[in-house]
Amino acid sequence: MNPPAHLHALSVSEQKRDAILAAALGEFETHGYRGTSMDRVAASAQVSKRTVYNHFPSKRALFDAIAAQLIAHVHQGSTLPYDPAQPIDVQLRRIIGQVVDLFVAPSFMSLARVTLVELIRSPELARGTYELFRERQTGLADWLAAAAGDGLLVVDDPVWAADQLFGMIKAFAFWPQILGDQPAPDAAMRARIIESTAAVFIAGHLPVRA
Q1: Lowest-pLDDT range of 34-38, 103-107, 160-164, 188-192
Q2: Which of 75, 74, 208, 81 is nearest to 146 (CA)?
Q3: CATH topology for the 1-57 domain
Q4: pTM for this predicted structure
Q5: Residues with Cβ < 8 Å from 41, sequence gap 6 or more?
Q6: What burial class does residue 113 get, using C-beta atoms within 10 Å of its C-beta: 0-12 exposed, 13-18 middle, 19+ buried?
């Protein structure tokens, strides 16, 4: 049995939206935000300009969608359901490993390069993207809050602590690749990043036992 026509149309629409986003990412990466036009995006995506505007009413909306995609990747990569039956260090190492893999993935690097360049150039874009990031950065913060609620960690501000952990990871698995064109960490370096980051973070947030 064939699916209903409206479901098939929705699937095609989603495919076109994904093609437009992929094309826009490539154009922004090659030509920058100012050098990219909706005509160029339409040609690269092999769709009409009208189709592009049906999905994204402006170039700003297209950029915001790419930034939202980046933020969604961060949220997904840093989310792990809290498990009170699992040792806290085991769970934290798993989360750190997920985040390391996310931050050095080629697709994430492309998204990050495009958004970072334009955020530096445009304070207005930067403010909007930062606010969106703060609204949606809940996965790791929720896990930290749950661990603190069980008395396993001392975390006064889960969002602050999540930022702290992200910063520790990015020092070795993001900024060297973005700024220094360094390769992604190999297995040995990945293990070292995970172990050292988890050890330092846990040591700084362990409850004081009487």
Answers
A1: 103-107
A2: 81
A3: Arc Repressor Mutant, subunit A (1.10.10)
A4: 0.78
A5: 20, 23, 24, 27, 52, 62
A6: middle
